[in-house]
Please model this.
Amino acid sequence: MHRRELLKLIASATGVAMVGGDALAYTLRDPVPLSETLFNKTDVAFINEASEVIVPATDTPGAKAANVGATIAVIVTDCYPPALQKTFREGLTAINTASQKQFGEAFISLSKEQRLTLFNKLDSEATAYNTARGIYGIESSKPSRWEAGTTFTPPHYFTLLKQLTLFSFFTSETGATKTLRYVPVPGYYDGDLDYKEGDKAWAT
Amino acid sequence: MATNDYDAIVVGSGISGGWAAKELTEKGLKVLMLERGQNIEHIKDYKNAHKEAWDYPHRDLPTQEMKDNYPVLKRDYPLNESTFGMWANEKDNPYVEKKRFDWYRGYHVGGRSLLWGRQSYRLNKADFEANSKEGIAVDWPIRYEDVAPWYDYVEKFAGISGSRDGLDVLPDGQFQPPMPLNIVEKDVAARVKKAFKGARHIIPGRTSNMTEAKPDEGRVNCQYRAKCWLGCPFGAYFSTQSSTLPAAMKTGNLTLRPFSIVKEILYDKDKKRAVGVEVIDAETNETYVFKSRLVFVNASAFNSAWLLMNSATDVWEGGLGSSSGELGHNVMDHHFRVGAYADAEGYDDKYHYGRRPTGFYVPRFRNWGTDKRDYVRGFGYQGSASRQGWRRGVAELGVGADLKDALSSPGPWQIGMTAFGEMLPYHENRIYLDKNVTDKWGLPVLAMDVAIGENEIKMRKDMQQDAVEMFEAAGMTNVRGFESDYAPGMGIHEMGTARMGRDPKSSVLNAHNQVWDAPNVFVTDGACMTSGSCVNPSLTYMALTARAADFAVSELKKGNL
Ligand SMILES: Cc1cc2nc3c(=O)[nH]c(=O)nc-3n(C[C@H](O)[C@H](O)[C@H](O)COP(=O)(O)OP(=O)(O)OC[C@H]3O[C@@H](n4cnc5c(N)ncnc54)[C@H](O)[C@@H]3O)c2cc1C
Ligand code: SF4
Model:
């Protein structure tokens, strides 16, 4: 017999339920499989390659190693309203178009240097595009700030990619533990700690 | 049925209900605590306590579906993956917004004691006298001195850390050592003190995060993870689960019944006493009656008023306590979301270790001492200084290794603070039953009709200006004042719906939190507040609950109830 039914039975017999039961509090959310997103494996691989240009591997792992593509697929599917999903999707195509235009090749075929050149250009374009429309501060805000049903002007697709990459990277285990300072149980607080250049920031 | 008879019934298991259960059981009463939501066991059920951002599929962001299902919660920060399931289900538990009202509820054992911000301050002497002196609403029937010993009592047990500052405006208490200010906050505190000649203070936040262990209660001191609202595996902050519930359980006198929606207090009009309560089982929809000699109503300010409104309606159409004409009226919250932030330059060689679950506090200074404004009462600030993290983004760096390196290092120090202002008790600010709308169990729901008034609007100017002025005086740069929109309820400090007073004609409760019309019914949560002060209120609910429980038991023994 299920515990809940057992509880009901006890409750109806005495009016007093036992303390306990299967608490549904702090709902545990299952990982979202790729098949439930708007993206396929090729998309995720592409996003990983693109994100790696924004946050490359240096002496610590980069966006690809953190598999930010998979996280971005889930966030765009579940946390974005349709208008932004469209902007983001079209952006993936637009990256290739821009790549063809500048280098005559698809993005995936570009060298590291070419990718960086292309993305720095897209980044400047994005800033100009957003400024012209009075859209500010997206990079440092949360990817979920938009609501379904509200009207808004979507920012440049590249800004979305950049924000999603930074967010997904720094909240990933790789980003938080290898690139940032991560201590699960600090144990004490010191508000006057000496800092030298190069020391890492705390993961939040 | 014999098992349905108790000495006392406590409605609700949150901050105030937990205290009622502890005090009454420790004094030997057989107590039934009724809680409308599910049980959550200490530690065992804190399922996300050890999770990190990467363990959540959406990295703790709310999804569009969550936003659709929680149209109120999504208006502010509480809607996220890590605390999902800990907020009252808005589809099952609707309410009516005559005017916008943001109601953040936790319906489960422990109530909002598991989710609260833990800031714990005493009201001061003037708080209890202000209504009378200024001719506003009604006078509190008690004074600071009546509550002071009970503040002592609850602080010791709950475990509050804080500094002793010797300020009349914010009385000291039985504190554990404070959580320290960081280097920037300390310097700013010293400069503010000097610039305002000792009239303004920046002190460590007084918080129910313990800096010393309580081995006898099985509680460890805080480990500086700042994940309090996921439940603390160390029992290091005050919650029903970590503190009052185990004490009550230890007596062997407590029965806790989750999934029990108390829908009515049963009233004997001849004896003028409550005789028990009627409960709907939230899971089975069956109805039960439980009898008792005492009823403590601790369902949180609005739900306690709701319960009174649904009780003894055959005697008073507006419910138990409505003979005063004040039941559901005088709603208060603390208005906030206004303040300032600034850059703190010159601290690039300093950082911090650990995640401190509190910040600094600025006690009220307006309309205090010789200060006189064009409004009454005042406000305090809560804030902190810290170095920015990766979320700051750095637009100038474009993309690539430089951007990554920059964001992997701490950014500049920033300091910010938000004011919490006192809201006056206006009779026209009220909640009432809307019988046309019902919840999942067919019960009528509350309608909210609350707005801030002139006094608050004037105060908000100072709340911003003074913050700017203080940061400027402390040599901060790039000082920016802010005001984001505030809707009543966002302060999550609902108060006043069954106020205490000296006259049954203008108050619902007397000086001992007894309902005038039913002396064996005690309401000791935020509903009882006659005025709101500007400090976070929950410590006061704890003190008033312990005080009322002591009185109730002595009256019971004397045969007066
Ligand atoms: C995010 C957040 C931050 C906060 N920060 C602070 C802070 O820093 N300092 C501070 O002082 N306060 C703070 N608060 C407010 C604080 O949580 C409340 O003041 C406090 O919990 C109120 O205690 P209570 O016992 O009245 O109600 P609650 O703790 O809300 O408990 C009420 C209980 O009653 C139950 N209940 C309701 N109706 C019924 C019914 N009909 N039958 C049976 N059971 C019922 C509910 O399910 C709930 O468990 C904060 C709150 C939140 C949400
Ligand atoms: S910060 Fe302290 S009180 Fe909060 S969860 Fe961590 S250890 Fe517990």
Observations:
- Chain B touches chain A through 87 residues (CB under 8 Å).
- Chain B has a mean pLDDT of 97.
- The first strand of chain B starts at residue 5 and ends at 11.
- Residues B 209, 222-228, 232, 234, 236-237, 357 surround iron/sulfur cluster (ligand 2) (CB under 6 Å).
